[in-house]
Amino acid sequence: MRRLAIRLCIWTATALAVCSAGRLAYGQSQQQVPPEGGEAAAEPPAELPSTGAPAEVQSAPTPTETVRPQGERWKDILVLPRRAVLKAKRVEVVPMYHFNFNNPLIRHHGIGAQINYFLSEALWLGLEGTYYFADQSNSSTGTYFLIGVQDKVVPAVNKLIFSALLDFGYVPAQGKFALFNRKVVHWEGYVTLGVGTFMTQVIPVKPSDPAFTNISAMFNVGVGSRLFINRWLALNAFLKMYGYPDTFEPVANAAFNRDTMPPAGGGAGGGCANYFRGLTPGTDAFENAYSQCRKDNGNTTLVLDVVFGIGMSFFLPPKFEYKLPR
């Protein structure tokens, strides 16, 4: 029986191969051979099969047809754009304002500007200059007066006049976000380090005492962020710490005064007596010597001012072009 079944299968396959040798593939009709000198008649296109759906469904627009084009953009299709601003080999001009908030005796409001040149997209070198306005509260409820009442000694206070620094900056992070799910806004965060110089002026405890100034080195470290509005304008916010050695007047030692003679009970003269030799009290030379005496015998302390500031970044030239590898 097995041999009979195998032979039957072989005969059936042979018969099917012979029958289909002179015919075309299934589902295709033979083309009619055109007569000599004539052209074959074009075959009419096939009709699409009916889906059986209602007419209003078949005539409904497709999703692509419902999108309204606006020039080369599509309103209903949001695409994340590439980096909005290129900064390499461009100059950034930043008018800025900042104030310190960690000094309980005096607050400085600084107004200045910063000019940066971008060596690359992430690294820049810049110059910073600031002029300061002092805001000191001497009222009976102010910190300055209350500390004097508590410690029985009025604290020494200096005010900043100006500062000038050379800054180095680096951008370690950048990104974008959707503002109200409508507009893509680009931003970047940066760190900065600077060195330079500054000038301060003593605020005398006694109004009759002359003030003296200090000029020394200064450094700063900080972090900040730029929020790009367009290709040449950005909102700049930063948090920095300025450190500098400042010399305060010797208010705790009453010996440094204008006395030139020993007291009635004997002993040495005032702490500045050596500065007054050969000088007449009341003259400019005498007052200058008194100011130098107080400065030489003052207390030098490292001051750390933490400031918060804002500014507007203007990039020049305002236009740039993308240069792709290909």
Radius of gyration: 43 Å
CATH topology call of one domain: Porin
Q: What is the averaged pLDDT score?
A: 80
Envelope shape: rod-shaped
SSE order: HHHEEEEEHEEEEHE
- Under the CATH scheme, which architecture of one domain would be assigned? Beta Barrel
Structure write-up:
It is a single chain. The protein is mainly β. Among the domains are: 91-248 and 302-316, Porin (Beta Barrel); 254-296, no CATH class. Helices cover 15% and strands 41% of the residues. The chain is built from 5 helices and 10 strands. The protein has helices spanning 2-19, 55-58, 63-66, 143-151, 284-296, and strands spanning 69-70, 73-74, 91-100, 106-118, 123-136, 157-179, 183-203, 213-228, 233-248, 299-316. The strands form 2 sheets. The chain has an 8-stranded antiparallel beta barrel. Mean pLDDT is 80; it is low at 22-30.
